[in-house]
């Protein structure tokens, strides 16, 4: 909602004009881009009208500020005067006004919960909502928590009925090791399900169980981690009386959509050209982090640009199409690779491109709704990618060709402007040569006169010719990703061609 640059942006013809997920954006006036907003926030201008004071805001007071030129909105207990931001909001003034004088947290979360509004709106902060003081937790309850029992108060009633059974944890130690065991009470938990971090003396183990997140969050010094049975190597061979002191949301099970994004700083290890404008970035995770981004999911990268935290989503890829194409696939937990197109007039990517080897960039936990179960018993896999919309297809392709025994055919139709824009063309051609199940076809929207291949934008004609089942009733999955208009038009065409919802996965987030 707040973090998309604009001015004459997106440019009238730009693919960025339609929002991901089909939301429409409004054209913004000249001088109202994200960069212009950052400049205004740095100008020293009093944006709240409170001359730098922070106040406690009652509900009655909040309700009064419900007009465009006097608009306060509460997000997660903090109240912002968003009137100065109105003209900079890519979703338009009307969207912001929906939350005028009220708590906009839900609306905000529905649209872009990953946007770092705290940083974007820090100069608009009016203060906190006035709340009753919380009852301090008594010591005994904390002790119980640390023995792995979830106090009733932390399990919302609705969740107790609808969500998974509450997990619990326990821990034990030897002279040199401490092992934390998380009892998820679910069968289908694998290495993708747990994310472990040790940063700034706090230890965090987040386990994703269906659409819920179970968190162990404590403060203690930790090294070496592994699996869901997390083994911590003691720095000194002393006996621990407890595991540590609970930190925010420790031992809580909450819907994943309600959790904030957690970031860790990763180091830039290498940067290589993939095309004239797209680069393969390799980031190294901190030594005490365990994080595997599930296939089809993305993470958010965060950089501070002229004092403001800017966040953009990117989809990790494998380091190449061919290296992982051998069995068994050894999970590489240390590095995350990204194929990122650098837009010279963009906000984030030029900054990313300017990073030196050894510099740091923050990487969030994964998000996304692609499910590996979509591959079950799959016979034909069709991938429709445009530009960097190729990125989710990389891991999908690697996984499918290596792991799905029922698979007969995988076809990629890759849409680009020119031949020079095709990412990993020679790797794709080599893969097609090596694996007879795989075929690739390139379609160019701005080809030179020498191009003999397919031309134009996505169309029903191209699709109906391309999407031929290997058998009459073979089980099919079609994945589609690219600029929002490409994905939206493509999905409509696929419905018109009578593919069912279950047979189509659109990367629209
Ligand atoms: P922006 O500032 O957003 O600009 C984008 C475009 O608009 C550029 O063409 C720029 O030149 C133009 N523009 C900017 N300002 C103006 C202006 N004032 N007037 C006219 N034109 C303007 N991208 C990847 O490369 N790799 C990925 O793996 C990847 N994964 C993604 C996953 C998801 C789920 C999503 C939603 C997007 C993903 N993207 C990916 C896109 C990425 O998130 C960014 O949108 C992209 O990198 C552009 O960011 P930017 O800040 O550099 O450019
Ligand atoms: P691009 O401008 O180079 O265009 C690539 C191709 O997309 C074009 O050749 C054309 O065939 C098609 N296309 C572009 N505009 C179109 C339109 N208006 N209608 C129909 N087809 C159109 O693409 P790019 O600069 O590489 O941008 C890639 C896009 O993919 C970005 O918008 C990015 O946000 C998105 N993306 C999304 C995800 C995700 O998971 N949701 C992942 C990666 C990239």
How many strands appear in the DSSP assignment? 27
The biggest beta sheet reads:
7 strands, antiparallel
Bound molecules: flavin-adenine dinucleotide, nicotinamide-adenine-dinucleotide
Beta-strand portion reads: 25-35%
Physical arrangement of strands within the biggest beta sheet = 18-17-21-15-16-20-19
Q: Structural class, from secondary structure content? A: alpha+beta
**Residue windows where pLDDT falls under 50 for at least 5 positions:** 1-23, 132-161, 220-228, 324-331
Q: Using only CA atoms, what is the Rg?
A: 25 Å
The tally of helices reads 12
Distance between the termini: 13 Å
The coarse silhouette is globular
Explain this structure to me?
- The longest helix is centred in the last third of the chain and has 13 residues, at 391-403.
- This protein has helices at 34-41, 59-64, 93-97, 105-112, 117-120, 139-146, 157-162, 349-354, 391-403, 425-434, 460-466, 484-496, and strands at residues 55-57, 66-67, 70-75, 78-81, 102-103, 125-129, 168-173, 177-183, 194-199, 202-209, 212-219, 229-233, 245-246, 252-255, 263-273, 278-284, 299-305, 308-314, 316-317, 335-341, 360-364, 380-386, 409-416, 438-444, 454-455, 476-481, 504-506.
- It starts with 33 loop residues before the first helix and ends with a strand.
- The strands form 5 sheets. The chain has a 7-stranded antiparallel β-sheet. Strands 1, 2, 3, 4, 5 and 6 form a 6-stranded mixed β-sheet that branches.
- The chain is of the alpha+beta class and 509 residues long.
- Flavin-adenine dinucleotide is lined by residues 5, 7-11, 14, 16, 20, 33, 298, 312-315, 338-341, 343, 345-349, 388, 391, 509.
- Nicotinamide-adenine-dinucleotide binds next to helix 9, strand 23 and helix 12.
């Amino acid at each position: 909602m707040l973090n998309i640059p604009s001015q004459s942006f997106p440019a009238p013809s730009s693919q960025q004009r339609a929002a991901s997920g089909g939301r429409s954006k409004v054209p913004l006036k000249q001088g109202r881009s994200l960069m212009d907003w950052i400049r205004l926030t740095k100008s020293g201008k009093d944006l709240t009208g409170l001359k730098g004071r922070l106040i406690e805001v009652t509900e009655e007071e909040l309700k009064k500020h419900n007009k465009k030129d006097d608009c306060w909105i509460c997000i997660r207990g903090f109240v912002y005067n968003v009137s100065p931001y109105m003209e900079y909001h890519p979703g338009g003034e009307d969207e912001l006004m929906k939350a005028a004088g009220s708590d906009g947290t839900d609306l905000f979360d529905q649209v872009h919960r990953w946007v770092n509004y705290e940083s974007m709106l820090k100069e608009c902060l009016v203060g906190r909502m006035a709340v009753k003081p919380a009852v301090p937790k008594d010591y005994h309850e904390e002790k119980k928590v640390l023995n792995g029992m979830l106090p009733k108060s932390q399990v919302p009633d609705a969740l107790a009925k609808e969500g998974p059974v509450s997990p619990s944890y326990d821990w034990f130690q030897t002279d040199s090791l401490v092992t934390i065991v998380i009892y998820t009470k679910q069968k289908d938990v694998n290495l993708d399900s747990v994310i472990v971090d040790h940063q700034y003396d706090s230890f965090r183990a987040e386990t994703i169980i269906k659409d819920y997140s179970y968190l162990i969050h404590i403060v203690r010094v930790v090294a070496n981690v592994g699996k869901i049975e997390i083994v911590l190597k003691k720095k000194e061979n002393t006996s621990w009386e407890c595991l540590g002191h609970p930190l925010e949301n420790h031992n809580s099970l909450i819907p994943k959509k309600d959790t904030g994004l957690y970031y860790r700083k990763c180091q830039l290890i290498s940067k290589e050209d993939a095309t004239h404008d797209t680069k393969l970035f390799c980031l190294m995770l901190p030594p005490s982090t365990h994080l595997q981004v599930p296939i089809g999911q993305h993470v958010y990268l965060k950089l501070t640009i002229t004092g403001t935290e800017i966040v953009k989503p990117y989809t990790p890829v494998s380091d190449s199409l061919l290296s992982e194409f051998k069995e068994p696939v050894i999970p590489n937990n240390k590095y995350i690779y990204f194929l990122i197109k650098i837009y010279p007039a963009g906000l984030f990517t030029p900054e990313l491109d300017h990073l030196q080897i050894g510099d740091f960039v923050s990487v969030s936990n994964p998000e996304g709704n692609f499910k590996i179960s979509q591959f079950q018993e799959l016979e034909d896999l069709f991938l429709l990618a445009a530009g960097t919309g190729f990125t989710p297809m990389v891991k999908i392709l690697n996984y499918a060709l290596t792991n799905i025994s029922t698979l007969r055919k995988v076809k990629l139709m890759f849409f680009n402007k020119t031949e020079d824009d095709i990412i990993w063309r020679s790797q794709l051609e080599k893969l097609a040569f090596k694996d007879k199940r795989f075929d690739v076809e390139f379609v160019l929207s701005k080809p030179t006169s020498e191009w003999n291949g397919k031309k134009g934008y996505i169309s029903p004609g191209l699709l109906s010719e391309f999407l031929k089942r290997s058998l009459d009733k073979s089980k099919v999955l079609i994945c589609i990703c690219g600029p929002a208009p490409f994905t939206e038009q493509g999905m409509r065409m696929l419905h018109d061609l009578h593919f069912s919802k279950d047979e189509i996965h659109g990367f629209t987030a």
